[in-house]
Automatic annotation (TrEMBL):
The keyword Transmembrane applies. The chain crosses the membrane at residues 14-36, 200-221, 228-249, 269-290, 311-332, 365-396, 509-533, 545-563. This is Choline transporter-like protein. The lineage of its organism: Eukaryota, Metazoa, Chordata, Craniata, Vertebrata. Keywords: Membrane, Transmembrane, Transmembrane helix. GO terms for molecular function: transmembrane transporter activity.
Length: 603
């Protein structure tokens, strides 16, 4: 085969590109349905018994005369019988209203209710009862709260007026605990994400800052910086593991643990602590074994930086990928929140409104979750192929003093015009391997209640096997993208050619690539460790009614994807550079007729 970047190409893997468009058409249908049928504000802001969401303008519900009101200035949910709440089918039986302020003092009579409404502008009776009629209407006792009304305070998470009277508070908290515990896992997770949404966004930005720090470290790499990075990684691993174990024991020994979300936090913390400890032990062992090759690492990255210096815009490529990922993640979370609250309004006695969850939502949620994995992998794969194409263009250039003009833009145009289907196919294979892992983890978690040690061991072994298979596939995907950038072939042909070349030169290339990728992996661990540590400190201060360990897992995933997006510049450059070297040595012999393309430093 003639290994040269082609000028004239043909489109590859068009069928896979067509399937990806169909898949996204289904995702757009789910997004449209979620926007029409869902209302994430109901979960976050709360709503009254008449279908009005507190803190915003509302559209009327047919058959509910008190719906469709402007509640912009009424942000809190107030229950007329807050001292005697009962739960029926995940609904609190007491009538609820949207009010502008919660009563700070006890109200003992209808006159007190009337005075509170006139002074504070917050009516505590049903909306169709005029303030002046509180003491005149014979049905006022049914339309107004049960007397005496205890003093209450707004609770920040669900914007509820929580009674401060000890007896009423205990009954109120008991009913609220029952509501949260009866909610399914999806709604508890959505509540946690909504409550900690600002923290999740802030931690994602923090992971971006840490990624910049590591990129600068690799750009101006020296032996001292390598030692510093390794020391910080070791400190971060030990510290995060210690904090996770401490939080686990703190939660487990807390006698006030009643909420199902808090029990889920304990289980997740134990899993995180065990996983973090295992990763720490393995990485410390590898660092100890490979510590004598630090000088070799410096030389390796100096060669990579020389290639990047010829294409300086490669360092900006991860920024665009990060922005695209952030836009997609915001879209994905918004659709998930709307999907989790999708339900139809049903009118009950007295003009009250209840929202019933539509069947089939969980299937849409799984489809939506697959879209998260596939699309994120697709965006990262596009970045990998763009970087590989730019490196290939500069490598196979005889005049090193006059590099090609705009190699990054040229690589992007080749990707979008010819090889999007190849990238779709590679990212789909990664997704296919991830889905069984997630399903097996779900089964393993289910079998914890059955106490089947043999089955759990089998499932964990299968999960480990799928993880190893995924890592191998990622490695070959990257080389397949590089080969496609050179020869313009489809995914399967490119993967076959790349495996053939790598197999012939494995003894020379494998140790170099593996050790370089290990240092890059330590950079990713640095970003994830310190981002998770920030998340532990932030979420631990907001324990109430939050499944905050799941948003923390989301933060860890985002941090890893961000670090992968930024550090893949060096990872892809290392892999592409040495694959090009192997191809160069395979097709040339260094003679005057067939000189090498590589620099003398690589020989």
């Amino acid at each position: 085969r003639e290994w040269r970047p082609l000028i004239y190409r043909k489109c590859t893997d068009l069928l896979w590109l067509f399937l990806f468009f169909i898949f996204w058409a289904g995702l757009m249908f789910i997004a449209g349905y979620a926007v029409v049928a869902g209302a994430a504000e109901r979960l976050m802001l709360g709503y009254d018994s008449f279908g009005n969401i507190c803190g915003r303008k509302n559209s009327p519900v047919i058959g509910a005369p008190l719906s469709g009101q402007d509640m912009t200035n009424k942000k809190y949910v107030f229950f007329l019988n807050s001292c005697n709440l009962e739960m029926q089918n995940l609904e609190i039986s007491s009538v609820s209203l949207c009010v502008s302020s919660c009563p700070q003092e006890q109200l003992n009579s209808l006159e007190d209710l009337q005075g509170f409404a006139r002074i504070n502008g917050s009516s505590l009776c049903v909306y169709n009862l005029n303030v002046s009629s509180y003491t005149l209407n014979p049905k006022a006792s049914e339309l107004c709260p049960t007397l005496p009304v205890p003093p209450s305070k707004s609770f920040p998470l669900f914007n509820r007026c929580v009674p401060q009277n000890p007896e009423c508070y205990s009954k109120y908290a008991s009913a609220l605990i029952n509501v949260v515990n009866e909610m399914d896992a999806l709604h508890r997770i959505l509540a946690g994400i909504l409550a900690g949404r600002d923290t999740v966004i802030g931690l994602s930005v923090l992971s971006l800052a840490f990624s910049f720090i590591v990129v600068l470290t690799f750009t101006f790499i020296r032996a001292l910086l390598i030692h510093t990075l390794i020391a910080l990684v070791v400190f971060g691993l030990l510290f995060v593991s210690g904090v996770l174990w401490w939080l686990y024991y703190d939660y487990r020994n807390d006698p006030s643990t009643e909420l199902e979300t808090e029990k889920e936090n304990i289980k997740f913390l134990l899993g995180y602590a065990i996983f973090s400890t295992i990763v720490t032990v393995v990485l410390l062992f590898l660092i100890l074994v490979l510590r004598k090759r630090l000088q070799f690492t410096v030389q390796l990255f100096q060669m990579v930086n020389k290639m990047i210096s010829r294409i300086p815009f490669l360092l900006f490529q991860p920024l665009w990928s990060f922005l695209i990922l952030m836009v997609f993640w915001v879209f994905w979370v918004a659709v998930l929140l709307s999907l989790g609250t999708a339900g139809s309004a049903q009118i009950t006695s007295g003009g009250h409104v209840e929202y019933r969850t539509v069947s089939g939502i969980h299937y849409m949620a799984w489809y939506h979750f697959v879209a998260l994995i596939w699309t994120s992998e697709f965006i990262l794969a596009c970045q990998q192929m763009t970087i590989a194409g730019a490196v290939v263009t500069c490598y196979f250039n005889r005049n090193k003093n006059s590099p090609p003009r705009h190699p990054v833009l040229s690589s992007i145009s080749v990707l979008f015009c010819y090889h999007l289907g190849t990238v779709v196919k590679g990212s789909f294979l990664i997704t296919v391997l991830r889905i069984p892992r997630i399903f097996l983890l779900y089964l393993c978690n289910f079998l914890k209640q059955k106490e089947s040690a043999c089955a759990k061991c089998l499932f964990k072994s299968c999960c480990s096997w799928f993880w190893c298979l995924e890592r191998c596939l990622r490695y070959f995907n990257q080389h397949a993208y590089t080969t496609a950038a050179i020869n313009g072939t489809d995914f399967c042909t490119s993967a076959k050619d790349a495996v053939f070349i790598l197999a012939k030169n494995s003894a020379k290339i494998a140790p170099i690539i593996c050790f370089g990728n290990f240092i890059i992996f330590l950079g990713k661990v640095f970003v994830v460790c310190f981002t998770v540590f920030g998340g532990l400190m932030a979420f631990n201060y907001h324990r109430e009614l939050q499944a905050w360990v799941v948003p923390l897992l989301l933060v860890a995933f985002f941090a890893y994807v961000v670090s992968q997006s930024f550090l893949s510049v060096f990872e892809v450059t290392v892999d592409a550079l040495f694959l090009c070297c192997a191809i160069d040595m395979e097709t040339n012999d260094g003679s005057a007729e067939k000189p090498y393309f590589m620099d003398q430093e690589l020989l």
